[in-house]
Design a protein that fits this description.
398 residues; alpha/beta; eight-stranded mixed beta sheet; 18 strands; binds zinc ion
Length: 398
C-alpha cells in the first residue's frame, strides 16, 4: 500500500510499504477515506520528538471503512468509523476510570523504557507518533491496523460526511478537554494561546461552555480572523503587549482561566524564547515554553491553567513561583479521546459544533509531502490539511 513515511527532519515521503495485517483477535483493518495532518505532526516533521525511525508511517487523525476484523473485534465489515489517536485497552486501571490516554497496556513492554525514564511512567500507545508511544503505524496511508478495535472506534451514521466528523479523532476532543480542564464558569474571561486547530476548537468549546469572554492570541492574521469568526476577541502578540492587554480586557484583575494550545514550539522573539530555541535546535532537549510562561503570569490569582499543547521534555525558567504564590490550578494531558467521542458526535449532529470551517486544503495522499511542507511553511493560509487516500482528486481549496 501507499503511505506517508518519515525519513528525517523536514523529510517525509509517500512510499510503498507492507499492507497491515490482523495480529491480535481484537484488531481491525480500516481502508482510510480521510486523514488529517496535525499540528503535532509538525513536531515530528521538525525532528523535536525523540524515537521516530526512518520509514515510520505517520498520522493519528483518520477515519475509514472496516475491511477486516479479528475474531474479538466488535466492528463489522463495511462500517464507517472514526478512530481516537490514543490507543486504549479498555480494561486496565486507567481505562476503567476513563483516563484513556494513560492506558497501561497499549504501549508494548519493549517500547516502554524511554518514556518511563523520561516521565517516571510509560506512556500509552498513540498512532503514528514515534516509538516512545509504541511505534504504531499511523493512518496517513491507504490502510491501517487498529488495535483494541472494540474500545476506541466510533461508528458514524451514513448521513454525516467525513469532513464533519474526522476531527473527533483528536483535535475536537483535544480542544474540548482543553476548555473542560479550564473549569469554565458562566461569564468567565478565558484566554487561549494559539489559534491553530486545537486553539480554535478550545475557543469554540469555551463559548459553548458559557464563557462570557474568550480572548485568542496568535500572530497569523488569517487564524486570528477565524478565532474572531468563532466569537473570540483577539490579540496579535507581535503588535500588542499581551499581559497589559489581558489586564485591560479583564477589568484589571487578570483572566479567570488560560489555555495553552501552543506547546513546545512557541514562536516569538522574547529573550527567554530565543534561548529555548537555541537549546532545542542543538538538541539539548528544552521545550520552547514561552506561551506557557506568559499564560502563568497573565492568569488571575486563584485562576485555572489548562495545557492541551504538547510538551515532551524539560522547560527552563518555568515560573513555579507564580504557580504557587497565585494559588493556580494546573491541568494538562494527552486527550482521553474515547471519553468525548460520543457526546461530541451528538453535538455535531445537532449543530452545536461545526468543524468543517477549519479545512483549508484537501489533497490526495500522493501529495502528502507537499501538504506537510505548506502546512509547516505557510501556517497562515494552510489552517488544516485533509488527505483523501484512494481518491484521485485535484487539490481544491475549501
Ligand atoms: Zn493530532
Ligand atoms: Zn488500558
Amino acid at each position: 500500500m501507499r503511505a506517508l513515511t518519515w525519513h528525517g527532519t523536514h523529510d517525509v515521503r509517500v512510499d510503498t510499504v507492507d499492507d497491515p495485517e490482523i495480529i491480535n483477535p481484537r484488531d481491525a483493518i480500516l481502508k482510510i477515506t480521510s486523514t488529517a495532518i496535525c499540528g503535532s505532526d509538525l513536531h515530528l516533521y521538525d525532528g523535536v520528538i525523540p524515537g521516530v525511525q526512518a520509514g515510520d508511517v505517520l498520522g493519528h487523525e483518520f477515519m475509514g471503512e472496516v475491511v477486516e476484523t479479528g475474531k474479538d473485534s466488535t466492528l463489522k465489515k463495511g462500517q464507517r468509523v472514526v478512530v481516537p489517536f490514543t490507543i486504549s485497552c479498555g480494561g486496565c486501571f486507567h481505562c476503567k476510570i476513563q483516563q484513556y490516554s494513560c492506558c497501561e497496556n497499549s504501549n508494548p513492554v519493549e517500547k516502554q523504557d524511554m518514556s518511563a525514564t523520561l516521565y517516571g511512567h510509560p506512556m500509552a500507545g498513540l498512532f503514528g507518533y514515534s516509538h516512545l508511544t509504541g511505534g504504531y503505524s499511523g493512518g496517513q496511508a491507504e490502510y491501517v491496523r487498529v488495535p483494541f478495535s472494540d474500545v476506541g472506534p466510533i461508528v458514524i451514521p451514513d448521513h454525516l460526511e467525513d469532513d464533519k466528523v474526522l476531527f473527533l479523532s483528536d483535535i475536537l476532543p483535544t480542544g474540548w478537554m482543553g476548555a473542560e480542564n479550564a473549569e469554565i464558569q458562566p461569564d468567565d474571561t478565558v484566554a487561549v494561546w494559539g489559534c491553530g486547530p486545537v486553539g480554535l476548537f478550545a475557543v469554540q468549546s469555551a463559548i459553548v461552555m458559557g464563557a462570557g469572554k474568550v480572548i485568542a492570541i496568535d500572530h497569523y492574521p488569517n487564524r486570528l480572523a477565524l478565532a474572531k469568526q468563532m466569537g473570540a476577541e483577539v490579540i496579535d502578540f507581535r503588535k500588542t503587549d499581551v499581559r497589559e492587554a489581558l489586564m485591560e480586557m479583564s477589568g484589571g484583575i487578570g483572566v479567570d482561566a488560560v489555555i495553552d494550545a501552543v506547546g513546545m514550539e512557541a514562536h516569538g522573539f522574547a529573550p527567554d524564547n530565543i534561548l529555548d530555541y537555541a537549546k532545542q535546535t542543538i538538541g539539548i532537549g528544552a521545550d520552547r515554553a514561552a506561551a506557557l510562561r506568559q499564560a502563568l503570569l497573565a492568569v488571575r490569582p486563584g485562576g485555572r491553567v489548562s495545557i492541551p499543547g504538547v510538551y515532551g521534555g524539560m522547560a527552563d525558567k518555568f515560573p513555579l513561583g507564580a504557580m504557587m504564590e497565585k494559588a493556580l490550578q494546573v491541568r494538562a494531558g494527552q486527550t482521553h479521546v474515547q471519553r468525548y467521542t460520543k457526546p461530541l458526535l451528538e453535538k455535531i449532529e445537532d449543530g452545536t459544533l461545526d468543524t468543517t470551517f477549519l479545512i483549508s486544503h484537501r489533497l490526495p495522499l500522493e501529495d502528502a509531502a507537499r501538504g506537510y511542507k505548506c502546512f509547516h511553511d505557510e501556517q497562515d493560509e494552510w489552517t488544516k490539511v485533509v488527505l483523501k487516500p484512494g481518491q484521485d482528486m485535484q487539490e481544491k481549496a475549501a
